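Morning F.,

Quick status update on the modeling queue. The single chain you submitted on Monday has been processed. Sequence for confirmation:
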Amino acid sequence: MFSIGMLGALKALLGAFKAANAQVGADDQLKPEHQNLLIRIGYDQVGLELTNIHSTIIKLSDRAKANKLFISLD
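Structure tokens below.
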């Protein structure tokens, strides 16, 4: 969920950059290096979250294969 939110926020941020640049003069526009920095920071966190999701899926799969996914009430 966090990763999806982060991607949505990043998309919104880039849209906001575009809208802001359309409303100001060339000298006052946000620079591409500002966008690149935010993307680099944002994607690091998204990558971490996707790695966590992948790891969790593998652990759940391993538990399911060992028939230890659910609690036994026996």
